[in-house]
Amino acid sequence: MRLEGIETGDIVKVSIGGRTAYGEVLEIRAGTVHFEPITRSSWRHASAHQVVRHWRLAGRRGGDRAAAQPLQQLSLPLHE
Question: Domain limits at 23?
Fold first, then answer.
């Protein structure tokens, strides 16, 4: 699987030695996905070849995680 679309916080399913595990992605470094296991597993990293499936973090916007808010929306009117 290609790792370009996988980001921190996503969920991955990996298959290592015929066994599967699920985990939350912590980082991607040098073609390896480092994750925190969600299921009972001792694996903490997997190669791109071992990643079987991946789910995106809900609510992510394309390319930019934090959408810029208009200045008017950030300020609250104060009435005296």
Answer: 1-57
Domain assignment present for 69: no
Q: Which residues, 6+ apart, have CB-to-CB distance to 32 below 8 Å? A: 45, 46, 47, 48
> What is the rounded CA–CA span in Å between residue 15 and residue 50?
5
Tens-place pLDDT, residues 9-20: 999 999 999 999
pTM: 0.68
In a domain? residue 2 = yes
Q: Tokens standing for 14?
A: 């990996």
